[in-house]
């Protein structure tokens, strides 16, 4: 059976949304998040402010729009992993989706610096990543030993892995992108999983 096709209108909406977000991120990186207005984003994208609001709730949503899609890609990649694989191994492999996003290291550094350099965006980023936990925990749960606490343990593993990834991203940005992101992620996971 052939995979179900995404309707053309939905594909078009996704492309437009992505182009608007990319335009906004370019402006945010050049002028700063707080110094860029939505009117400037709309003008740079060649759309009206009203059109911009057809795709995004607010300025923060515009800046963080890619995180929802990333979470879905990560969850889909996790679902492809062997069912008997250790959840931490599957999570690391799933997070590799982020490395596959077509973007230069310089651009990635600009975006991460932008996200973690602004309190509002940092908070919104954490909130969006917390939603990743809702996508991942149900997939982790069946891999854990049967117990009354299995759902709780699955949420804890997902949350810890996401925080390790966030911490690795922050450190990667602090180091100016001069080290491998997943070496930092691995170090963060070792720190969390190390017995005391």
Verbal overview:
The structure is a single chain. The chain has 2 domains: 8-62, Homeodomain-like (Arc Repressor Mutant, subunit A), CATH 1.10.10.60; 64-193, Tetracycline Repressor, domain 2 (Orthogonal Bundle). The chain is 74% helix and 0% strand. It is mainly alpha-helical. The protein contains 11 helices and no strands. The mean pLDDT is 89. It is globular. Helix 6 (87-95) crosses helix 10 and helix 10 packs across helix 11 (181-193).
Which helices and strands occur, and which strands form pairs?
Layout: H1 8-31, H2 38-45, H3 49-55, H4 59-63, H5 66-80, H6 87-95, H7 97-100, H8 105-117, H9 119-140, H10 150-174, H11 181-193
Helix pairs in contact: 1-2, 5-6, 5-9, 6-10, 8-9, 8-10, 9-10, 10-11
Report the CATH architecture of the largest domain.
Orthogonal Bundle
Name of the CATH class of the largest domain: Mainly Alpha
In total, how many beta strands? 0
- The average pLDDT is 89
Strand content: under 5%
How many helices? The count is 11
CATH topology of the largest domain: Tetracycline Repressor, domain 2
Largest sheet: none
Integer count of domains: 2
Could you give the distance between the termini?
A: 51 Å
The named CATH superfamily of the largest domain? Tetracycline Repressor, domain 2
* Helix fraction bin: over 70%
**SSE sequence, one letter per element:** HHHHHHHHHHH
Structural class, please?
mainly alpha
């Amino acid at each position: 059976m052939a995979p179900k096709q995404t309707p053309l209108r939905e594909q078009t909406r996704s492309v437009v949304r992505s182009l608007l977000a990319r335009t906004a991120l370019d402006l945010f990186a050049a002028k700063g998040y707080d110094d860029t207005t939505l009117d400037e984003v709309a003008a740079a994208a060649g759309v009206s402010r009203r059109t911009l609001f057809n795709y995004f709730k607010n300025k923060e949503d515009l800046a963080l729009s890619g995180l929802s899609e990333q979470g879905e890609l990560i969850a889909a990649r996790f679902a492809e992993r062997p069912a008997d694989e250790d959840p931490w191994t599957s999570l690391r492999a799933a997070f590799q989706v982020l490395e596959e996003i077509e973007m230069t290291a310089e651009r990635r550094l600009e975006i991460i610096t932008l996200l973690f350099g602004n309190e509002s965006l940092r908070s919104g980023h954490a909130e969006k990543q917390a939603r990743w936990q809702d996508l991942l925990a149900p997939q982790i749960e069946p891999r854990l030993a049967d117990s009354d606490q299995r759902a709780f343990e699955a949420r804890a593993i997902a949350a810890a892995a996401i925080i390790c990834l966030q911490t690795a991203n922050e450190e990667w940005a602090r180091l100016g992108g001069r080290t491998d992101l997943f070496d930092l992620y691995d170090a963060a996971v070792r720190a969390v999983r190390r017995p005391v």
